[in-house]
Every structure is written in structure tokens, then in C-alpha cells.
């Protein structure tokens, strides 16, 4: 039996972070967690690119273009959608999730999902470096694992 799996060794990988500016109190923390995780796992600072867009709704089109550019082994989507008093949350969260799922299925590189969908700001902060860890870090590590798995498959593992 042969088992093929990715690793968390990022040496030589080029990683893009696509970060929504809306809810920046949260997304800046997600970005910081992702960058720290990538550096800790061997990705060179010069191999990390950060692309910023307006909000979570705009992440899908940005991630698609960045992934299709061929410049990166992995793309990490980072954003935060907070529930409010209108159905806007549902529309944005669904559109963001659907577009990123579609991109991930067809992208020539690894794509990971680090978009928080939370009931309130406190819950989001807890998941962006607070009591619940940093989901930006987790998304970056998932991207490394997937990128190294794709690389292993491409090398005929």
C-alpha cells in the first residue's frame, strides 16, 4: 500500500494571501497569523504575496485571477462576514463560499478557505488570534499541505 499526502514544509513554495479589507480589525489578524505560519514552516518572505480587495464578496474573483496567474503554488482566501440585522450576511457569506469553492475545484494550484462567518465581532476576534486560535494560520497550513500534495501527485508519487 502506498499513501500519498502533503506536508507542512513550505520551503520553495510561493504563496498568495488574498485578504478582504472589510472588517479589517479581524482580517488583519487573520493575515498576520497566516504570514507567521508560512514563515515558521519555511516559506521565504519574498515568496509571500499579499493581495487586498474590498470585501468577502470580492474574494472569489480575486482568488480566481491570482490562482490562474501561475505565479503561486497556493492561494489563501482570508475574510470575515459578520451577521447583522438584515439578510445581507446570508447573501455575502453564500456568494463568497460558492465562488471560492468553484475556484478551488478548477484552480491550477491549492486554494484554501480562511473566511470567517460569525454572529458578532467578539466571535470573529476569538477566531482571529483569540481563544479559538487563528483561522488565518489554519488556512495557511491547509494551503501548504494541499500544495505539497499536489506537487507530490505531479511528480508521480
CATH architecture annotation:
3-Layer(aba) Sandwich
Strand content: 15-25%
Percent helix range:
40-55%
CATH topology: Rossmann fold
Explain this structure to me?
This protein has 157 residues and is α/β, with parallel strands linked by helices. The chain has one domain: Rossmann fold (3-Layer(aba) Sandwich). 46% of the residues lie in helices and 22% in strands. It has 5 helices and 6 strands; from the N terminus they run βαβαβαβαββα. It has helices at 24-40, 59-68, 88-106, 121-127, 135-154; strands at 15-20, 48-53, 74-82, 110-118, 128-130, 133-134. The strands form 2 sheets. Strands 2-1-3-4 form a 4-stranded parallel beta sheet, with helices on both faces. Strands 5-6 form a two-stranded antiparallel ribbon. Helix 1 (24-40) crosses helix 5 (135-154). The longest helix is centred in the last third of the chain and has 20 residues, at 135-154. It starts with 14 loop residues before the first strand and ends with a helix. The relative contact order is 0.24.
Amino acid at each position: 500500500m502506498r499513501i500519498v499526502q502533503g506536508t507542512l514544509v513550505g520551503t520553495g513554495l510561493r504563496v498568495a494571501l488574498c485578504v478582504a479589507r472589510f472588517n479589517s480589525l479581524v482580517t488583519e489578524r487573520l493575515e498576520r497569523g497566516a504570514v507567521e505560519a508560512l514563515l515558521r514552516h519555511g516559506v521565504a518572505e519574498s515568496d509571500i504575496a499579499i493581495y487586498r480587495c474590498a470585501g468577502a464578496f470580492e474574494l472569489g474573483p480575486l482568488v480566481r485571477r491570482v490562482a490562474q496567474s501561475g505565479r503561486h503554488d497556493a492561494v489563501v482566501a482570508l475574510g470575515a462576514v459578520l451577521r447583522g440585522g438584515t439578510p445581507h450576511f446570508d447573501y455575502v457569506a453564500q456568494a463568497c463560499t460558492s465562488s471560492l469553492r468553484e475556484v478551488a475545484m478548477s484552480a491550477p494550484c491549492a486554494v484554501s478557505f480562511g473566511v470567517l462567518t460569525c454572529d458578532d465581532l467578539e466571535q470573529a476576534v476569538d477566531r482571529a488570534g483569540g481563544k479559538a486560535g487563528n483561522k488565518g494560520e489554519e488556512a495557511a497550513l491547509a494551503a501548504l499541505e494541499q500544495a505539497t500534495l499536489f506537487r507530490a501527485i505531479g511528480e508521480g508519487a
